[in-house]
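Hello,

Our lab assistant flagged a job as stuck in the queue for most of the afternoon. It eventually completed. Since we weren't sure the result was trustworthy after the delay, we are filing this so someone can double-check. Below is the sequence as submitted and the structure that was eventually returned. Let us know if re-running is recommended.
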Amino acid sequence: MTIPLVVGYFKMNTAKRINNILNAEGMPVWQRNYYEHIIRNEEEYSRIHQYIETNVQNWVTDDENPVKSK
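-- returned structure --
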């Protein structure tokens, strides 16, 4: 199985479960697409880890946020 198939399968199945729990059929759960990158050293790992940890703070201004602050 290729990475795109694994990611697609994961996103499809988790979105179905989330929508089922919320009784919100068809509600978007995931942003479209994704970015894959091979982490080659500790410095890259640290930089990417920091990005992931702090990225949620940027959600209010993210172009993908449907209720983005204007």
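-- support follow-up --
The delay was a queue issue, not a problem with the job. The result is valid. The chain has a mean pLDDT of 89. Residues 38 and 44 are 9 Å apart (CA to CA).
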